[in-house]
Amino acid sequence: WDVPASPSSHVPTLTTERNYYGGNWASFSFSGLLSWIKENQQKTDLSDECEDWRKLILEDEEAIPLSSKDKTIQHIEDFCFGDQDSAEGVEEAGALPKLPVFGAPGAQGVSPASEKENPAAEGISQGSEQSPAAEGAEKENPAAESPGEEPQNPEPELAPGTEAAPGDGAGAAPGSGAAPSTASGESPPEPAKTETAPSENAAQEPKKITYSQIVREGRRFNIDLVSKLLYSRGLLIDLLIKSNVSRYAEFKNATRVLAFRQGKVPCSRADVFNSRQLTMVEKRMLMKFLTFCLDYEQHPEEYQDYESSTFAQFLQTRKLTPSLQHFILHSIAMVSETESSTLEGLQATKKFLQCLGRYGNTPFLFPLYGQGEIPQCFCRLCAVFGGIYCLRHAVRCLVLDRASGRCKAIVDHFGQRINASYFIVEDSYLSESTCTNVCYRQISRAVLITDQSVLNTDSEQQVSILTVPPLEVGRAAVCVIELCSSTMTCMKDTYLVHLTCPSTKTAREDLEPVVQKLFNLNTEKDYISTLSHKTLITVNTPFSETENEELEKPRVLWAVYFNMRDSSGVEKSSYAGLPSNVYVCSGPDSALGNDCAVKQAESIFREMFPAEEFCPPPPNPEDIIYDEDEIEPEESGLNNSPETKPESSAEESSSGDGAAVTKEE
User: Fold this and answer.
1) Which residues contact 55 (CB under 8 A, 6 or more apart)?
2) What is 13-71+369-439+570-608's CATH number?
3) What SS3 state is found at 621?
4) What GO MF terms are annotated (predicted)?
5) Backbone angle region of 488, left / alpha / beta, with phi > 0 → left and psi within -120 to 50 → alpha
6) Quick check: pTM over 0.70?
């Protein structure tokens, strides 16, 4: 996330990407995602444009080759449950002309992330190939206030989708529609005004959405490769506020925390006592336990004997009913039933409770236009202070100085040699020989486009999170995040559903059983045929309960499954032959929050610049005073040969996490 670009350090940075913006943190339009799927299904490696790049390596230097193709995505399978033939010849509304992808024969289209439509905000659109430096001015934000900004109105109007009568239908988070709590003294951000009005009759039949409509409205989709939420008091929110990067983004409060047992998930004292799914005794037991969790450090005698036990085993000793144990484990702490220790469970429960009431009555925020917007926010700030971004700019190798043992340059696929002091490389760029001793974990991911919510209420505009416990022994719990159209991630009358869990098998094998539990996977023709058959059934031969339940489930219109590499737990010492001034950043992890990425970014920054503050508040442009030396044009670090230093010719464009290079001053 462009961590070297500190406003106080004034260190020029160059960030390159093989193709599109953001790596595995990226967000795509629907057509862009189809191009990404096709690219990752290709088995061939990219051709080497510069066959003689090794000639640029001197006798006292050594080349460390880098991988030209991202191999972090595996077992990718996509399914269309609509009529694909009807979409032939249908063009995406407002699509840009397609451009060739350098070094990727057969790859289609412009950078997939560049196809997003951003009607609700000024400034650079996500994935736009315009240089973010041109968009350095603060983006106007009429739709929603960012975390850290104090709204003018102390009682802001609630967004459609955040209101629901207390104690409504089973499965909804109790109190999810109550006014956001302001007990912490902080006002919640105003909700986005881009939301559509809630349906007057949520019980009516969902509108029929065809595959051709999805293709035509493809730019309305912003589909993240990784699915996460922001804890309202998490490290990322604190960093966004501290660095003032929050001004580049807009957020929506997650409105519902659902439970798989058709019960409500109490989030506050009012929610507990409004819940119809808990008895009065259970309510008192739950409130007593949650009160203990808020200051569990002050009562070590309560849990010391169970520190070696799992959190699930500890809950059994607290005289909690099975329903309460289920709610706490899967809908509040959201930790593993078999792997998380007692302390990990208590810490997670406390974090959940502490995040309540800051921006709403759930602990979570979601950025409008998707998680892929977050790294781009840091990209904008970096560009304001001189950061340069190059898309479709692969790097062939690192150049190692044998005498000092430090990396001194890179060679790109054009044969250019770029000198630098520090090098930050995303794990996917490292070659197989460098990663021989590395043991990676995998994440199973699924993305669905559905025609209705997993739990219909009076409001269609709900952002929901649901943890599905393991359906079999040895499997992991599955985190389900359902996004409505007001998050600007899908077209109207559809929902975007993300499923994530640590991998035990392929993504489809891990996640399809959960999809079958929650959704209807019939094709469009089968679904219409079943509905027609149901209308012809006589009173004497009614549909079975199972068939009725299947018809009432949300129907999946399109789905994709894939496995993503999780390199978050890999130590630098595991990589073979990396110089001391080369730093490796991981891709996304399987956790719900972003704490791992923030901690890693700060750790790398402090190793490089121990005397500098990490992401300090940027100065106002009118307060910046430039020295005479800074006004003079700097000598370029680009070289076509080891001896000569011609003028810089790097193309400037928006980019994200990739091979980040910090040039020498």
Assistant:
1) none
2) 3.50.50.60
3) helix
4) GDP-dissociation inhibitor activity; GTPase activator activity
5) left
6) yes
